[in-house]
Design goal:
Layout lengths: L1 H22 L8 E5 L10 E12 L2 E10 L4 E11 L2 E6 L4 E7 L7 E5 L18 E13 L2 E10 L15 E4 L3 E2 L19 E5 L4 E3 L21 E4 L6 E6 L5 E7 L5 E9 L1 E5 L6 E9 L4 E8 L6
Antiparallel strand pairs: 1-2, 1-12, 2-3, 3-4, 4-5, 5-6, 7-8, 8-9, 9-10, 10-11, 12-13, 14-15, 15-18, 16-17, 16-19, 19-20
Length: about 325
Amino acid sequence: MKKKSIILFLLISAFNIFTMHCQSKWFDQDAVWYYSTPYAYLHSEACTKAEVKADTLIQGLTCKALLFKNTETDRVISTEYLHFRNDSVLYYNYYDKSFHTLYDFTAKVGDTVTVHKNKFKPTDGFLWSDSIDSFQYIISEIDSIQVSETWLKRQKIKPVDHDSWVFASSYDTVAYIVEKIGNKGYFFGRVPYITLMENIGMLRCYSDHTIQFKNPNWDKACDFVNAIIEPQISTIRIYPNPASKYINIESTDNKNILSVEIIDVDGRCLKLTDVNNVKTKIDVSNLSSGIYFARIVFSDKTYLTSKFILNQQLEK
């Protein structure tokens, strides 16, 4: 009798482990993520939505197509392709035509997860147009959290150095990756050396047919979008506007400008320029005609965002 009880206990335990493993499968067909756009021109109120679409076969691997959209315009920002294998999530970089490990839940404490060891061109889902030097992070702690009565693995991570692409809001900030959900910042991480406003690049909500997660730091609707608000922290002048080849940015109260980011209407950072002066001239000739935003960061870490129009027809 005792032997049968032990066998029954082992069978139940094995079933529970199997069930938990099945629950950890990523990219359910109804999975959806809502993020505060990482490089938004708004006050933490621009929203990027990611949702799972049909399966796609790439290099013999079955991938889930993840559609990233601007919720304000309903415009598609990017379609990214993810493959789930052995508790790891690989993303397909269509520039180097290779798969790269984005999340690795087989990693142990102290392990380094290398997404890209060397310089690479990011896909559009990164919301970053320039080349990135590297993308690596270290697993510092591992535990579990309960979401909708489901226990999920969680990794506490840190970047390998100050130059590597990161999952946190800065090099010194703690970041977490949660099973099924991914990074609790933005799905593909962010550049470490841009000063961001609070909540920018934050996962607001995630849901699928088994779990629902809402970030306790987000108290609005998951897809909330606010109107453009330009904080009157400092006075700047941008000219010419409309522009064609370049824009001049000048601080009219002689406040030192640390850097300028050029951002499109979908929140993608297209250009980052270090300034450290009261004025600068930025080449925008490689950008298409349209509406853009210049996010000016001052040396005291305050910022100001201003809109400008680019019209390449002005040179014809």
